[in-house]
């Protein structure tokens, strides 16, 4: 009897030693972004910080990340997505539209949480914003194009022609460009377009707008933002105001930026990932939208353009007051 009890105790102890190791196995998260640039990098950092600071997932202990960039190449994005599937990651976080489409094509089972996607329905990622269905949900960064164009007209009332550079191969860019056309019509302006296929085309496309436009607008186009320095150089040389939809990239140059804080956007995405890790299904989680605007102005660029900084800042403050009176949450930052 004692021998049986002793053997039983050994079995129980062995089970006790094995179970915690199995329970403590870290989760695997594959994070893929279409290209490296400040907005997408900030989104990625926000995801990781939220999972650690809010939910206690310590990197390399509770959670293992496989972070990949497709470097602007869709074929590479597809390869990365297939790698995540073969590695059996627990969740795929896809940043930007092309990588999200690659992930959705690669797996119909692994939960996918997208971020920095303008129009997930048009991109074929979800069927319905409130009831996504399938294995995909996420956070949209549908930029407030109408307010960006409205702001431009408010600050530069004599502007008649607005130039824009975008990649017609990016679904998100086509959507925002169509919205920009509508917004320009409402504000009695014309939209002059220059399209690109790769970042190498951006300089020539921007040059083609010189002499035709009163200002240039760059939305959340990944191809153009990855080569934004070339746009900035043309605009500074020719004294053309440059308006961005991404405040994260204003530090590179440009005149103004009105848009979302992509780091907070990433943290919002991290919240959604945590819900899935706790057992919720992507099909049951409605798509969310970024909701806090940041308006940034670049003092150095204003000086380059010959604009009086203090007078322009006063005009911006009045514009922000007008927006807040419309219950729009916006923060003004002068750099």
TrEMBL record:
<feature type="signal peptide">
    <location>
        <begin position="1"/>
        <end position="23"/>
    </location>
</feature>
<dbReference type="InterPro" id="IPR028082">
    <property type="entry name" value="Peripla_BP_I"/>
</dbReference>
<protein>
    <recommendedName>
        <fullName>ABC transporter substrate-binding protein</fullName>
    </recommendedName>
</protein>
<dbReference type="InterPro" id="IPR007487">
    <property type="entry name" value="ABC_transpt-TYRBP-like"/>
</dbReference>
<dbReference type="Pfam" id="PF04392">
    <property type="entry name" value="ABC_sub_bind"/>
</dbReference>
<keyword id="KW-0732">Signal</keyword>
């Amino acid at each position: 009897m004692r021998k049986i009890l002793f053997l039983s105790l050994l079995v129980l102890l062995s089970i006790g030693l094995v179970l915690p190791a199995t329970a403590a196995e870290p989760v695997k998260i594959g994070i893929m972004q279409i290209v490296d640039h400040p907005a997408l990098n900030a989104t990625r950092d926000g995801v990781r910080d939220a999972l650690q600071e809010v939910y206690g997932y310590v990197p390399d202990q509770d959670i293992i990340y496989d972070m990949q960039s497709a470097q602007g190449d869709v074929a590479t994005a597809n390869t990365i997505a297939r790698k995540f599937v073969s590695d059996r990651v627990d969740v795929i976080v896809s940043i930007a539209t092309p990588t999200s489409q690659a992930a959705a094509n690669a797996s119909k089972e692994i939960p996918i949480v997208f971020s920095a996607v303008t129009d997930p329905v048009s991109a074929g990622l979800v069927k319905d914003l409130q009831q996504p269905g399938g294995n995909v949900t996420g956070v949209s960064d549908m930029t407030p194009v109408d307010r960006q164009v409205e702001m431009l007209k408010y600050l530069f009332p004599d502007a008649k022609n607005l130039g824009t550079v975008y990649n017609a191969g990016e679904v998100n860019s086509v959507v925002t460009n169509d919205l920009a056309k509508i917004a320009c019509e409402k504000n009695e302006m014309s939209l002059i377009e220059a399209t690109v296929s790769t970042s190498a085309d951006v300089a020539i496309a921007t040059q083609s707008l010189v002499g035709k436009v009163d200002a240039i607008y760059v939305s959340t186009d990944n191809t153009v933002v990855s080569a934004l320095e070339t746009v900035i150089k043309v605009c500074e040389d020719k004294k053309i105001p440059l308006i961005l939809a991404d405040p994260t990239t204003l530090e590179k140059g440009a005149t103004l930026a009105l848009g979302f804080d992509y780091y907070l956007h990433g943290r919002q995405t991290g919240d959604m990932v945590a819900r899935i890790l706790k057992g919720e299904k992507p099909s049951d989680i409605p798509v969310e939208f970024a909701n806090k605007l940041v308006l940034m102005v670049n003092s150095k660029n204003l000086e380059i353009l010959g604009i009086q900084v203090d007078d322009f800042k006063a005009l911006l403050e009045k514009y922000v007051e007008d927006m807040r009176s419309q219950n729009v949450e916006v923060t003004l930052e002068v750099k």
